[in-house]
């Protein structure tokens, strides 16, 4: 009945927001992955992953869409519920799909559904300054929030494709400022996608909260990749920041352990996975 009390006796207690903040303070790299079902969630958890994201990337790697836009709240709840059953230690984050947080009240309603029905421990939403009031509203209701900056896949039609963001000095500074404002509004984590190394480092140094990168260079607090990408399941071209961790390994479990170790040792990302 009292699962949280039972888990306190584990060799490694479950990760929470405080754990992640202490890891940043200590300079310990945070290893993160996506997952979409219970079986892979167990493998990811057993590999020592600190944070698991049920990303709207499921629209592409599970549902076969070209973008994340078609994913619904019900889709995320379903997959989050499945992933939650496979986790013991890792911290579970769920994506807020496209147009599911158009205003603070809608954002709160859908966040509650993701947590109560799906079992999420934190929600992630894309956007900068336009989401400040939403982040404040969620924080006032004790909803843990991960803010997503840089390349925002839900905005792919607006920005004209999957492109590196923040190369221009003024745009880089604006992203740093936005990250600080989101932190001040109550964001507990910032996810930074597809930006130059220097910008990843600058955002990380400017914030007190952990910065998780995906194509954001080696100097952020942690790394996240799409599970299917690192297991060489994704067909076709993959982004530059992806590394195939199945290469040289004979099982997904060992490949996942290799990924976690590479993040912890800061061997990943290597220069060939980064943007200048």
Count of separate DSSP helical elements: 12
User: What count of structural domains?
Assistant: 1
Number of strands: 8
Give the C-alpha Rg: 17 Å
Structural class by helix and strand composition: alpha/beta
Q: Unreliable segments (pLDDT under 50, ≥5 consecutive)?
A: none
Going across the biggest sheet, name each strand in turn. 1-2-3-4-5-6-7-8
Mean pLDDT metric: 92
Described by its quaternary structure, the protein is single chain
- Overall spatial form: globular
- CATH class reads Alpha Beta
Under CATH, the homologous superfamily reads Phosphoenolpyruvate-binding domains
Strand content: 5-15%
Indicate the percent of residues in helices.
40-55%
CATH overall fold name:
TIM Barrel
How widely separated are the two ends? 51 Å
Supply the CATH architecture: Alpha-Beta Barrel
Order of helices and strands: HHEHEHHEHEHEHHEHEEHH
Major sheet, described briefly? 8 strands, parallel, barrel
Structure characterization notes:
The termini are far apart. The chain has 276 residues and is of the alpha/beta class. The chain has twelve helices and eight strands. Helix 6 crosses helix 7 (132-140) and helix 9 packs parallel to helix 10. It has an eight-stranded parallel β-barrel, surrounded by eight helices. Helix content is 41%, strand content 14%. The radius of gyration is 17 Å and the shape is globular. The chain has one domain: Phosphoenolpyruvate-binding domains (TIM Barrel, Alpha-Beta Barrel), CATH 3.20.20.60. Helix 10 links the parallel strand 6 (189-193) and strand 7. One of its GO terms (cellular component) is cytoplasm.
């Amino acid at each position: 009945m009292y699962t949280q009390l039972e888990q306190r006796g584990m060799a490694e207690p479950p990760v929470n927001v405080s754990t992640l903040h202490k890891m940043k303070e200590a300079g310990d790299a945070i290893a993160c992955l996506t997952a979409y079902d219970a079986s892979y969630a167990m493998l990811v958890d057993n590999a020592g992953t600190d944070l698991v994201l049920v990303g709207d990337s499921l629209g592409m790697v599970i549902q076969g869409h070209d973008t994340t836009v078609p994913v619904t709240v019900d889709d995320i709840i379903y997959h989050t519920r499945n992933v939650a059953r496979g986790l013991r230690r890792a911290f579970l984050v769920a994506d807020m799909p496209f147009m599911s947080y158009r205003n603070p009240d809608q954002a709160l309603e859908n966040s509650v559904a993701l947590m109560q029905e799906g079992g999420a421990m934190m929600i992630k939403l894309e956007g900068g300054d336009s989401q400040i009031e939403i982040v404040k509203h969620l924080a006032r209701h004790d909803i843990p929030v991960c803010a997503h900056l840089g390349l925002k896949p839900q905005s792919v039609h607006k920005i004209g494709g999957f492109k590196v963001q923040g190369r221009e000095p003024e745009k880089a500074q604006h992203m740093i400022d936005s990250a600080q404002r989101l932190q001040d509004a109550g964001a507990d984590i910032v996810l930074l996608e597809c930006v130059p190394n220097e910008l990843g480092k600058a955002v990380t140094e400017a914030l007190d909260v952990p910065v998780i990168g995906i194509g954001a260079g080696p100097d952020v607090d942690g790394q996240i990749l799409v599970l299917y990408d690192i297991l060489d399941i994704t067909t076709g071209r993959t982004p530059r920041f992806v590394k195939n961790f199945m290469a040289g390994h004979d099982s997904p479990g060992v490949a996942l352990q290799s990924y976690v170790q590479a993040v912890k040792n800061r061997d990943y990302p290597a220069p060939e996975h980064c943007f200048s």
